Amino acid sequence: MLDNLYRQVILDHYNNKRNFEKIKGENVKKTHYKNPTCGDVMTLFVELEQNQVRRVTFLGEGCSISMASASMMTELIKNKSLKEITSLRKAFEQLIRHGKTPDEVDLGDSFSLKGVHQLKARHNCALMTWQALDKVLKDEKNYEGFYS
């Protein structure tokens, strides 16, 4: 029953992608990212203001897991500080790689991707957007992400 609900959430984000657009602006950073294992591609746009992600959007194409994960992440990190995003990023990686997450971290809809941890070949699909975010934010001093 719960697995079916999670599948519905994933399909909803895949079929009705949130924040699926290009944004421009003085404070917008972007990166193009290609999943090395499957060929899914995306461009991530991040608008930063005073150590906060104000807006985040993406364009791309790929499997339902990578596109749903991108949609979920953009919803999750909007208007969050880089410190908060670091915690979310680490919790999401724990969820995907090990099937667990700290109780104090709310991953929102991203939690529906928990079952991906059983499919090692799909880990990069779920983590692709977060890896793109790491690439965009690697020079920001209050973001640790993958580079910590």
UniProtKB/TrEMBL annotation:
<dbReference type="Pfam" id="PF01592">
    <property type="entry name" value="NifU_N"/>
</dbReference>
<protein>
    <submittedName>
        <fullName>Nitrogen fixation protein</fullName>
    </submittedName>
</protein>
<dbReference type="GO" id="GO:0051536">
    <property type="term" value="F:iron-sulfur cluster binding"/>
</dbReference>
<dbReference type="GO" id="GO:0005506">
    <property type="term" value="F:iron ion binding"/>
</dbReference>
<feature type="domain" description="NIF system FeS cluster assembly NifU N-terminal">
    <location>
        <begin position="6"/>
        <end position="125"/>
    </location>
</feature>
<comment type="similarity">
    <text>Belongs to the NifU family.</text>
</comment>
<dbReference type="InterPro" id="IPR002871">
    <property type="entry name" value="NIF_FeS_clus_asmbl_NifU_N"/>
</dbReference>
<dbReference type="GO" id="GO:0016226">
    <property type="term" value="P:iron-sulfur cluster assembly"/>
</dbReference>
